[in-house]
Every structure is written in structure tokens, then in C-alpha cells.
Amino acid sequence: MSLFAKAQQAAANVKVEDKDTLGGSFTVPTDVYVGAIKMAYIDAWKSGALFVSIELALLIDGKERAHKETITISNKAGEFTYTDKQTGDKRPMPSFAMVDSLFRLASGKGFNEQTPSLKTVKTYDATLKTQVDSEREVFMDVLGKKIHIALTEQEVDKTTKDAMSGEYVPTGETRKENVLSKVFDAERRTSAEANAKTEPKFIEQWLEANRGKLVNRVKGNKGNALKSGAPTQSVQAQTLFG
After folding, report:
1. CB count in 10 Å sphere of residue 179
2. Residue 77 in contact with residue 93, Cβ under 8 Å?
3. Residue 70: which residues within 8 A CB-CB, separation 6 or more?
4. What's the CA gap between 21 and 107, in Å, rounded?
5. What's the maximum distance between 2 C-alpha atoms anywhere in the chain?
6. Please, how many CA atoms are within 13 Å of residue 92, restricted to the half-sphere of its CB?
7. pTM (predicted TM-score)
8. pLDDT tens digit string along 63-81?
9. Which among 103-107, 123-127, 164-168 has the top mean pLDDT?
10. For the segment 140-176, what is each residue's pLDDT rounded down to a tens digit?
């Protein structure tokens, strides 16, 4: 059984309800950008948790730029839900719901409805410390479809692996990054609006609440003063916007 087939089986009973709530590369300001999915494939961490590696092509100031993000969609047991502490109900992990919404708005089909194909992609080999060709299950139906991407700019800790504990701890320096926060379809609608066949309204509410904001997620290393580090480099994507 393929990795996706196992994930599909585990996700069969996960009900995702997209709620409209306000909540590397050189970073871009928090905003909504026109984009398309350039690559999306499923893989697993050594822990057993599943992730989807996504590359987005974004049209920013008339130029195409790439945004790459690795989104962990399950726990170590391969489960896509968590238990709500207040209600005791099983709820989809927010990261899984994000990927499901992204796929649904791009292709009309959610995560569990996809039929990925085995393709050769570039992955990072930690031993060789370089990109190598690897076979992965690629979600072909979502590639190249126009969507609108809400990216949040945030400041986070730089981390390093502690030799004693093996855990990653803050170095005392910080960096900026962009993360996927919300997805809208080609008509600027959320999943809820698309399902209800209503006009796009939430996107303007999201922009009013978030546009231009830098979110501080720095926890800091108590032993060191915080220092702002250089942002990570952007990746020049082969154009999808001819």
C-alpha cells in the first residue's frame, strides 16, 4: 500500500469544515497574492508523521516568486485529528484542514479525493547535504491551478540542535519567514463561500485585519540577547504566468 493510500484510509472519516476566522525566501509583507501550486507531494518524517511539501508560484509586483512550505498534516501515529480539550470532540488538525482547503479550492477535490501519481522530484538528502532525485506521490490535479494565497510575515527564533538533549533550542537570533495562512479560489472565495455559492466577502475582512502586519512569534533564548538575522533567500521560479 502506498504512503498516500495509507493516509487516504486514515483520513476517510475526517470531516473538514473550513471556517472563516481572522486569526525560505526574502519575505513579503502579509497580504493576499495571486498564485498557483507548482509542486505538491506527500512524504513522511522519521517520526512517522506525514507532511505535504508544497511549492507555490506567486505573482508579486509583476514578477513570479516561489514560496516553499512543508506542512505536517498528521501526528506520529498517522492520525489527522486531535481531541478538543473543552468538548472532547475529534477535530481535524489545522494543518490538515489547510492542505485539504488548498487542494479543494485548486482542483475541486479535497485531500482524500486526490489520486496522486508517482513522479521524480527534488528532495533534500541530509547525508549528502544536497538536492537529489527521488520518487514521491505527486498531487497532479492541483498543479498549475490559479488560486489566491494569504501569506503571513512572522519573526521567529533561529534554532540549533542541543548536543545534550537532542532538542532544537533558540540561538538568541531571529529570522523572518512567510507562512501560508488562508487560501481563496480563483474568484477570491473561501471554501465556505464557494460551497454556499456566495460572493467573496471574507477576503476583505482578512486583509483589513492582517495586511502589512509582522507577527512576533519569538520565544527567545534567555541566555542570549535577541538579534535580528538576515531573511532567507528567495527562489526564482520558472514562470507559470506567461
Report:
1. 18
2. no
3. 51, 52, 53, 54
4. 23
5. 55
6. 21
7. 0.79
8. 999 999 999 999 999 999 9
9. 103-107
10. 999 999 999 999 999 999 999 898 888 889 999 999 9
Instruction: Specify the DSSP class assigned to residue 14.
Output: P
Q: What are 155's three cell numbers? A: 519573526
Q: Give the whole-angstrom CA distance, residue 174 versus residue 37.
A: 29
225 grid coordinates: 540577547
Q: Are 35 and 59 in contact, with CB atoms under 8 Å apart?
A: yes
For 45, the 3-state DSSP assignment is coil
What residue type is assigned to position 87 of the chain? T
3-state SS track over 140-192: HHHECCEEEEEEEEEEEEEEEECCCCCCEEEEEEEEEEEEEEEEECCCCCCHH
User: Which amino acid is located at 187 in the chain?
Assistant: E
* Grid-cell match 532544537, residue found: 168
